[in-house]
Amino acid sequence: xxxxxxxxxxxxxxTEALPYIRKYSGKVILIKYGGNAMTDETLKKYVMGDIxxxxxxxxxxxxxxxxxxEISDMLKKTGKKSEFVNGLRVTDPETMDIVxxxxxxxxNKDLVNLVELAGGRAIGISGIDGHMIKATQLDPxxxxxxxxxxxxxxxxTDLLDMGYIPIISTVGCDKDGNxxxxxxxxxxARIAGKLGAESMLTMTDIExxxxxxxxxxxxxxxxxxxxxxxxxxxxxxxxxxxPKIRCCVEAIRRGVHKVFIIDGRLPHSILMELLTNAGIGTxxxx
Length: 286
Fold this sequence. Notes:
- The protein has helices at residues 4-24, 41-56, 68-77, 93-117, 154-161, 184-195, 228-233, 241-253, 269-275; strands spanning 28-33, 60-65, 84-85, 88-89, 122-126, 133-137, 146-151, 165-169, 171-173, 179-181, 199-204, 222-224, 258-263, 282-285.
- By secondary structure, it is α/β, with parallel strands linked by helices.
- It has a single domain (27-285), classed as Carbamate kinase.
- The mean pLDDT is 92.
- The strands form four sheets. An eight-stranded mixed sheet has the order 5-8-2-1-11-13-14-12, with helices on both faces.
- The N and C termini lie far apart (46 Å).
- The protein is globular and about 60 Å long.
C-alpha cells in the first residue's frame, strides 16, 4: 500500500521533471534504439511506454532502430553464417533480403505495435520510403553495405506534424533502386542532424563511456567532442565504442545540441536521462 512518503516522492519527481518538460516541449528528440538493447521483451515495453509519455507531453520523438541480433537469428535459421568486418555485417544479396525482411518488416512493425498498445500513435518507415536515405556502396568487399550520401527528412517531419511517432529502419537505396544495409548509429546521427534535433539518445547495453571498461563506477558523465581524440589515444575509447562515439561526435558536428549514450537495459532510462537532474549515461556536447 502506498504511503504518504511514496506520494510525496512521486510529486517531487514530477516537480523536478517540469523544467525539462518545458525545455524539450516542441523540440525533436531522436532515440537510437540499438539491437543489443532490444533483446528483452519486458524492457522493450518500458522503452516504448516512455517514448509515448514523451510524445504526450509535447516532445517530438523520432526512433531509429537497429536489429542486429534478430538478423543474426534469422540468418542462422536459414543456415547462413554472420560475418563481420570492422563491426559491419558483410551483406551478400541473400543476406540483404533477410536484412530488409527483418529490419523493415518484423522489428519495425513490432515496435510500432508496442507504441500503439502503450497508447501512442506510430508509423514505421524505412530509408527506402520516399527514398529517404540515399546511399551508395561503401566497400565492394562488404557487399550491400551502404554509405549515406543524403537524407531527405520530409517523410519524418510530415509524420511528426500529423502527431505520429516515426519509427525508422535503416535500409537505404541508390538512384537505381539498389538496396543497402545502413549502420543504424550512422543513420541516427545523420537524421538527427538534418532534423535539427535538440538531443539524440543512443540506447545500448552498457552504462555509457567508462574510464575502466570493467568498472561501472568510472562512468564519464560529460564529455566535449574535443576530448575524444585524446581518450581514443589512451585506449579508453576502443573496440566497439569507437564507431559508436564517432557517430555521437558526428551528430554534434551536424548541429545536435546534446548526445547521450545510455544503458537501455535499465527500465525508464530515457526518462531518467532526459527528465531528471541526475542523468545516468555519458553526455556529449560541443
